[in-house]
Sequence to fold (171 residues):
Amino acid sequence: MRMDDTSPPGAGPGVRTIRLTVNGRTRELRIEPRVSLLDALREHLALTGSKKGCDQGTCGACTVWVDGSRVLACLTLAIACEGREVTTIEGMSDGDRLHPMQESFIAHDAFQCGYCTPGQIMSAVALLDEGHSADGEIAEWMSGNLCRCAAYPNIRAAIREVRDATGGAGR
Ligand code: FES
Ligand code: FES
Fold:
């Protein structure tokens, strides 16, 4: 492996160029291999919709999709996402038209501070697609997304409304 010219001895692989496909667009960035997908999105691509809550895999604020499956971006290396499709909350709307789940969160007042909301929405859409849409399942399959404002009843109501309107499909 080529060491970056500025790397001290023993510091590991240096900066390299990687390409990520984010929300359908190919982006090139220069990062060290240790950089998380979350930091690559927020710090290098200015996609700050995905939030850093804990940075250790416990809160779900950073939830994005990789190849259509939800992942915790803080626990995923950006370099591991080369050649895969990354979708963030910025990719959910169609121009100015919000995704039905975004509309439903607004209609049901499913957020207070809004910090957890992007991750909640990424999980909410995915769980319907995963088929975990029964009333008794929604809380369990959303349990990786914490909300310090405790908007949980409204979040579940928003998800149920989209489920009922779409026949269960999230996307
Ligand atoms: S920031 Fe990734 S799980 Fe909390
Ligand atoms: S709305 Fe504040 S953390 Fe969820």
